[in-house]
Amino acid sequence: MSLFVPTFDDTVLVRDADAETVGEDPVAVKLLADSSASGGALSTVRVTLGEGADGARPHLHRNSAEMFFLLDGEAELLSGEDVITAERGDLVIVPPGRPHAFAAPPGSTADLLIVITPGVERFDYFRHLQRIRLGEAGPESLLEVQELYDNHFLRSPAWEGRR
After folding, report:
1. What is the rounded distance in angstroms from the CA atom of residue 24 to the CA atom of residue 156?
2. Element (H, E) at 23
3. C-alpha closest to that of 122 among 8, 13, 29, 49
4. pLDDT at residue 5 greater than cutoff 80
5. Residues 101-145: tens digit of each pLDDT
């Protein structure tokens, strides 16, 4: 096991009013702190999902763990082959290399704080997803940036069969 010690000198403060939001209802992502702000320690976003909205389809990160803290509502989360339901106040941490996904269940909304550690520069990934939603880029363009953002997509029968 190796110990990663981030290097940054100043306190990171992100004011809610200053944070960029990508997307809108039913899926909005507030960009809070990217890896460069924390000396590589973490990347963090806040994701708000409307009723039954999909957050992220099955994928894995080879080099980072991902933490989900449910600020409000309810979320379905894939971790490996397990689909779990998290409720307000629940914390889920997915280790590196484990397939995961998340969504708001039908009839429910979700407000999630998501932290990836060690951090990866991912703000441009969320902007890329927005360009896909707006039709400015095709979904296949994500395959070209999987290595860059350590975001590797895969199929999950457990996730696909949950509803």
Report:
1. 27
2. strand 20-24
3. 29
4. no
5. 999 999 999 999 999 999 999 999 999 999 999 999 999 999 899
What residues have CB less than 8 Å from 21, skipping those under 6 apart?
Answer: 28, 29, 30, 31
In sequence order, the β-bridge partners of residue 150 are none
Task: Write the DSSP string, 128-153.
Answer: HHHHHHTTSS-GGGGGGGHHHHT-EE
pTM for the structure as a whole? 0.93
The helix (run of H) or strand (run of E) holding residue 125 is: helix 123-133
- Between CA 157 and CA 49 the distance in angstroms is 23
**How many Å apart are CA 102 and CA 91, to the nearest integer?**
13
Q: Give DSSP secondary structure letters for 32-99.
A: EE-GGGGTTS-EEEEEEE-TT-EEEEEEE-SS-EEEEEEEEEEEEEEETTEEEEEETT-EEEEPTT--
Which residues, 6 or more positions from 163, have their beta carbon under 8 angstroms from its beta carbon? Answer: 106
The length of the chain in residues reads 163
Closest CA to 145 of 116, 124, 115: 124
